[in-house]
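Prompt: Have a read of the protein record below and flag anything odd:
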Amino acid sequence: MRASSTPVSVRPTSGGQSLIRSRFRSDAFLLAALAGGLHVWFLGLFLLRGFVYPVGPDAPVYLWWMRLAGADGLSAVPRPGAMALLGVTLGTGVGLPAAVAGVECALGVAIGAAAAALARTGGASRIGWALAGTLAGTFATHLVAGYVSNLIFAVVFVAALVVLDDASRRSVVAAAVLLGAGALAHPLFFLVGAAVLVLAGALAFAREREQTWRALAATIGGATVFGAGWVLLLAGPPVFRTDTSQDAFLRRAGLGDALAHAYRDRLIQRWWRYALSASVPLAAFGVTACRGWVRRALVAWFAVTVAGVAVGAVTAWFPPDRFITFGYAIPILAAAGVTAIVERWSRRRLMVAVAAALTLAMMAGAAIAWLREEPYLKPRAVDAVAVAVGAASGTPLGTPWIFPIDPPSTQMSLVATLLQNVIRATVPPGRIPDVHVIVPPPPPGLSADEEREWSAFADRSAADAARAARGRPAPVVFDIALFDSRHEARRPVCQPPVCRALDGPFTRVADGVSVSAAAIAGRTTGPPDQTLDSSTARVALGAPLVLAVLALVGFGWSSLVARDRPTAVALAPAFGTAAAVLGGVLADRAGLRLTGAGPGLLVLTLAGAGGYLALLAQRRRRAQPTSTLGR
């Protein structure tokens, strides 16, 4: 008689089920405590200092990118995936500044949760994966400070590493979608992630070739998702290109040596905050404490981080410190190293004390760096610009708006690009391309390098403003005392017809604010722009609200591939982030502009509903009885 081929299922006893439920409840409680602690970590800065705007030098850039994307579409900005997420989170109703700050903080918490899931998948104990989530979440401080695009990719990349530990085809598809969404947020870091996956796959080739093919398939799939999204965006308006940072200007001006010096100087100045002397030894020791795919992925990530820092420092092709801020393998492996030391030498108090001291050093570096952060968008500057441009709101679109500035700094290209971003974040979306800053000649007493950089910026900004003014209405000049901290009558470098506009006359519209008289003669002042209205309370509400919404949207999707409920909970914000990015891109291509709460709420609802419907369909398929022979 032939034996039946039907597999025998062994059901856990009632006592076993109770034990599993109890363990999962404990894990869920620990995840909630981790998320709560990281929320206190990030929001404490805003509450203690009373900040109303997001922190970090790139935050004003994301504000004006989002306003431009809301008016012209996602194709008009260089980071469409990041703007899709920000636009969708406007559905929370907290307003644009609080939504950006909320996304910053919420994604920092999400990185901690995803890192905890990755360590848990790699075999870490409960204390081990909780520590990994804590160290990775606090290390996220370096990206939470304004680098939203990097944050998005980091969150989805860690989640992709978690799901790739599973051998199912569904997990490969999920990883590809996560990577594709991250690539739409930051294409360059997708290349870094691809390098990590390829190297991790190569490390697995000798023993587990299936992991190699899964890593390659997910990478190719992510590139395909990114390519499809990019093709969709080609149908929209072209990207508005301008210098958004000192690095961009130095690159455009051909000042390669100054750019290399800025990169290396930045790496040296920020080295202490990364606490690498504490984390790297722990990470090296923690490699032996991981297992399987997670170990290979973390080793590959660590190797790519080291190689990236070395190549960046030597060649100045890119800022090397950005590789460090993306190197979450270091805190995750460091947590594994700490737990391994405690488990192996728990009776040796000196070893335990050393491990604890190194852990505190890592967190202290992140804490000091975070407490030094502040918004680059100041309420006084926003109010001054709002009053000035309100007076000139009746001028035709395309009229060049000129802002002379002369801040008390020798790094003119750095300060000028920051102020230009602040101004663009404040003006109405249709006026963003019209904004130009111009600066005076360099003052005496500068070094040769400082004078060369200042002169280059003065000449190029004057040429850009003059080019924009040709064939357009007469430029409008905004004289704002807040942007001229030297309080000197130094005429900016200019070219016709901007020079004629600088000769006045001017009309005073507020204390320290004057506008070209011809621009406001006989015109009605426009209503005040309330897009940047914000408060500390809104920011404090925005972070937990954004995280809760992303987790709710992503839980259905994460449950499709997660091995258990705690992993699904930990990865839910990452899956919600990917769903919001892709949903926002599709909505934008369908003609729905992501402005205000309505469109974002609609996208969030549809994206979340899709995940729960897919989960329901999966459970129904599993519940159907299998066919048997002879029926």
Q: What stands out?
A: Residues 1 and 453 are 89 Å apart (CA to CA). Residues 1-11, 627-631 have pLDDT under 50 and may be disordered. The chain is about 65% helix and 5% strand.
